[in-house]
Amino acid sequence: MVSPLLTQSFQSCDSQMIQRENISNFIQQAEFLLPPIEIKDEESGYNKNLFCIPKHYEEDLERVFIPHGVILDRTERLARDIMQDMGNHHIVALCVLKGGYKFFADLLDHIKALNQNGDKSVPITVDFVRIKSYCKDTPTEKMSIVGELSTLNGKDIIKTGRTMKALLSELKDNEPKMVKVVSLLIKRIYRSPGYRPDYIGFEIPDKFVVGYALDYNEYFRDLNHICILKERAKEKYKSNVRLLE
Ligand code: IMP
Ligand code: MG
């Protein structure tokens, strides 16, 4: 039995315009799962000077929003929840590039550790797909999906859910036995035509974040923590020319 497992680092709420206070309830009712860690709108994160940040990004970041260690700890628990639910299904893990690669790798490391040390284990195969739906921090009209969808399984971040919906509709054509979507982050966006993942790491305010493979115009993927950008950094990195300097 093969069960595709899609991992992504972002997703936002929600097609059914659920009231914010009912979101956690809805998730539990829908999937009998624990709600994600909720990061409140007023949460400002941490002083970046208290963490190790690459020198080349120091002046660009406002705050550390989710430290790397917290991301890994939460991912470890998601791995446990997934393995408990998967039964004896063979897992095809599909990573949605590029933003999902860190989460995908860390999630699979935790799943592999469970496979190695637990009473039962299931085979896992991996696959990768690339979706481009944003230009810098702005959604684009045209969404391109590059990759082989026959063995589907993972994604990076869900904001409105538009990207994930497109991917899932492609997936359906391959008639998988079961598809589960894992998203590290879900943005609280109340009136968007979103898609709700089966497993969610954190529910965050609708702020643009970077780091842990999430980018702004291809920058900041090489940053471990999930951080908030300074407005002036968007100006600085808005052109790809910097990549060539
Ligand atoms: P959606 O289609 O609106 O759900 O957007 C999902 C995609 O947008 C993700 O796969 C990311 O590539 C990108 N994205 C959305 N929000 C952010 C953000 O805050 N930081 C970086 N990328 C983002
Ligand atoms: Mg991007």
UniProtKB/TrEMBL annotation:
<comment type="pathway">
    <text>Purine metabolism; IMP biosynthesis via salvage pathway; IMP from hypoxanthine: step 1/1.</text>
</comment>
<keyword id="KW-0660">Purine salvage</keyword>
<dbReference type="GO" id="GO:0006178">
    <property type="term" value="P:guanine salvage"/>
</dbReference>
<keyword id="KW-0547">Nucleotide-binding</keyword>
<dbReference type="GO" id="GO:0046100">
    <property type="term" value="P:hypoxanthine metabolic process"/>
</dbReference>
<keyword id="KW-0328">Glycosyltransferase</keyword>
<dbReference type="InterPro" id="IPR029057">
    <property type="entry name" value="PRTase-like"/>
</dbReference>
<comment type="function">
    <text>Converts guanine to guanosine monophosphate, and hypoxanthine to inosine monophosphate. Transfers the 5-phosphoribosyl group from 5-phosphoribosylpyrophosphate onto the purine. Plays a central role in the generation of purine nucleotides through the purine salvage pathway.</text>
</comment>
<dbReference type="GO" id="GO:0032263">
    <property type="term" value="P:GMP salvage"/>
</dbReference>
<comment type="similarity">
    <text>Belongs to the purine/pyrimidine phosphoribosyltransferase family.</text>
</comment>
<keyword id="KW-0963">Cytoplasm</keyword>
<dbReference type="InterPro" id="IPR005904">
    <property type="entry name" value="Hxn_phspho_trans"/>
</dbReference>
<dbReference type="InterPro" id="IPR000836">
    <property type="entry name" value="PRTase_dom"/>
</dbReference>
<feature type="domain" description="Phosphoribosyltransferase">
    <location>
        <begin position="71"/>
        <end position="216"/>
    </location>
</feature>
<dbReference type="GO" id="GO:0005829">
    <property type="term" value="C:cytosol"/>
</dbReference>
<keyword id="KW-0460">Magnesium</keyword>
<keyword id="KW-0808">Transferase</keyword>
<dbReference type="GO" id="GO:0032264">
    <property type="term" value="P:IMP salvage"/>
</dbReference>
<dbReference type="GO" id="GO:0000166">
    <property type="term" value="F:nucleotide binding"/>
</dbReference>
<dbReference type="GO" id="GO:0006166">
    <property type="term" value="P:purine ribonucleoside salvage"/>
</dbReference>
<dbReference type="GO" id="GO:0004422">
    <property type="term" value="F:hypoxanthine phosphoribosyltransferase activity"/>
</dbReference>
<dbReference type="GO" id="GO:0052657">
    <property type="term" value="F:guanine phosphoribosyltransferase activity"/>
</dbReference>
<protein>
    <recommendedName>
        <fullName>Hypoxanthine phosphoribosyltransferase</fullName>
        <ecNumber>2.4.2.8</ecNumber>
    </recommendedName>
</protein>
<comment type="subunit">
    <text>Homotetramer.</text>
</comment>
<keyword id="KW-0479">Metal-binding</keyword>
<dbReference type="GO" id="GO:0000287">
    <property type="term" value="F:magnesium ion binding"/>
</dbReference>
<dbReference type="Pfam" id="PF00156">
    <property type="entry name" value="Pribosyltran"/>
</dbReference>
<dbReference type="InterPro" id="IPR050408">
    <property type="entry name" value="HGPRT"/>
</dbReference>
